[in-house]
């Protein structure tokens, strides 16, 4: 089957994947563009998942001061090699993440970082709400779990909807960058300062 070069170019622009991968995806999906996108997404996620266990000892510390100088962010973003740390796409990701943190003020990097005490406090609040909602007891736990998941999307950086694309979470954006650059990338730590705010 002959693959149209313009279609390959369009697929590459949409997904950021290599030309050969785009050609293969179009061949596998018999020229169906949307199926090719799905194929590449699945392939990239699997590739990224394999890389996610590799050590990240390079990278950089990036700062961002919001206009008006009332909010500032410091972020340590890690990768595997100095080569990727100097890559423009990696630097762009770091810059965009600092702006995201400034805007959405996450408290933790991922779900696993939320202290058990905080989770138990949230559960207790949600259970009280569920009990007073007039809904049957058998659905209370489901309501609690649903609200807890929403809580994670508000306070955990990786679970938050990415400010530059509301179809993606921060986790999706990092996974996609891992797949593009071929190296593991991880957020080690961040701190967000707001003028006049008390430090914990």
Q: What would you note in describing this structure?
A:
By secondary structure, the protein is an alpha+beta fold. The protein folds into three domains: 5-51, Ubiquitin-associated (UBA) domain (Helicase, Ruva Protein, domain 3, Orthogonal Bundle); 58-110 and 156-194, Elongation factor Ts, dimerisation domain (Tetrahydropterin Synthase, Chain A), CATH 3.30.479; 115-154, Orthogonal Bundle (GTP Cyclohydrolase I, Chain A, domain 1). Helices cover 52% and strands 14% of the residues. The protein has eight helices and three strands. The chain has a three-stranded antiparallel β-sheet. A hairpin with a 5-residue loop joins β1 and β2 (71-79). α1 crosses α3, α3 (33-51) crosses α8 and α6 (116-131) crosses α7.
What is this structure, in a nutshell?
The protein has helices at residues 5-15, 19-28, 33-51, 82-85, 88-104, 116-131, 140-155, 170-181; strands at residues 58-65, 71-79, 185-194. It is an alpha+beta fold.
The mean pLDDT is: 85
CATH superfamily of the largest domain: Elongation factor Ts, dimerisation domain
Shape: globular
**Unreliable residue runs:** none
Radius of gyration: 21 Å
DSSP E strands, number: 3
Number of domain modules: 3
Helical content class: 40-55%
The CATH topology of the largest domain turns out to be Tetrahydropterin Synthase, Chain A
Broad structural category: alpha+beta
| Assembly of the depicted chains | single chain
Number of helices: 8
| CATH second-level architecture of the largest domain | 2-Layer Sandwich
| Strands in their spatial order, largest beta sheet | 1-2-3
* Termini gap: 62 Å
Q: Give a quick account of the main beta sheet: strands, pairing sense, barrel closure.
A: 3 strands, antiparallel
Give the SSE order as H and E letters.
HHHEEHHHHHE
The CATH class of the largest domain: Alpha Beta
Beta percentage is: 5-15%
